[in-house]
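Hi P.,

Sorry for the delay on this. The queue was packed all week, but I finally got your sequence through. Input first:
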Amino acid sequence: MLGRVASALLGRQMEYRPNPQTGAIEAVPVKEEKGDLWRHIVTGAILGMASAKGTNSVLGGFAAGGAAGIAANRNMDQQKYARAQQDFQNQREAQRGQREKQADTRADTQIEMERQKNTAQLEMWNKEQILHERDANLRDAEFNQRSNENSMQMQRWAHEAGGIDAPIPGNNQVGNGAAMQKLYAQDPTKFQAPKGYDRFITQDHDTTGLTYDKDKGFIDEQGNPVNLEARTTWHVSFVPQKPQPLDIDGATLNRLFPKTMGGVADPKQTYHMPFEHLAGMATTEHEMSRRDADETYKRKHDDLRADMDELKSKANNFTRQADEAERQGDRGTAQQLRQQAADAYDEYDEVKQQANPHSQLRKSDSGRPKDGAPPAAGPQFTLKDVDTGSFFTRPGRGRGVVQIPGISGEDTTKTINDINALQTVKERQDYIDRLKVPDRTKSDLRRASLSVDQKKQEFSATPAYTEATSFLDKLSPEARAFKIDNSKNYNDDEKAVLRKHYNLQ
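Then the structure:
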């Protein structure tokens, strides 16, 4: 009875916990266990004896003990509440610190990614500038003029954004292009920006005193083609990785970047733009213009190359026919054919003059005999029996037979005998051309009716022959023979030519 009274007086035990939804401290009753009854009794008794000291009344002592118990319980309850509140504050502070740390980490990562993106953007611009250095001579006046204007403007903006001139020997000196390009290839570390900066390369071409000719490119007062590499100036700057934004009016943006902007910028509005955004627009503009120029150049020179190849083939055919006519003793026909070959060579040279003077096409050789040199002798070779290896077949388990595709077995034998009976190349070629067989078969018959010497003349005129002999020259005779016999890069005729070239049995 006394324990229950004490329990009632002291109150139920409570715990205090923060509500995660509201953040308020809430009291949560503690479930009483079996021993809690005796704890209340003992607590009441102890408090009663302590409080009744100095009085002779039992009830007065009990009341005094109850009052002391209630006060002690209230004090303990307040302590629990205070501890819960402090724990909650500590927990919130720890969570806030963790969030701030995570936010700082995300911010640092974002800043680093942004820095890398900006560095890459400037390097894309640098790549475009170096590509322009290589092909400036192949571009027209409009392309070079616009590239010059954009490049010089980007150089000014780089300095306005906080950029500085790179301390590289010869930097900004007029006409330093060749020297800077050589230095860039030999010691690229000189072009590396210090910490906190990115490199930024611009270049321009001095066309003072030059005019542009659509066939010759830029020419001087005497009409001679001029190499712009000698008139190129490199400017290398180090731009802060956090450059100052720039105020650019819309009219300037539309004028410098017509392909990129498409004229959408308001000419009357001023735009506050980060330098890396300007570099990105300039890079895109230059890349698009360069690709358009590449396509125009390629289309023109591909057409010229096709015409030149056709004229060269025509001249070579006339020359071969003239050689054959001379061997047949028909000098009148030979002279006429050589004149036709000369006309084809002249036309070849005229077409070549339409190519850009700095292009590889302009350096092409027609194969015309040099002035004063006797006409090249025609191919001297002997005829041989048709090589039937090209037409050897093995149907099923039967024995091997020789059959030309498109011709029966009996007619194959007659055709081969007829070809072998002819005494000149022209006769054989005319006979083969009249056969009603596929073109591939005619080509095989032509090859099969020539000697190894003639095949060598044909094969040796190709880049594949030069490449093959350059490689095989480095090998021992045994390795050379093995390489020729097992290579998949050459057909049987070419292998025969290579074996004869190296006197391999």
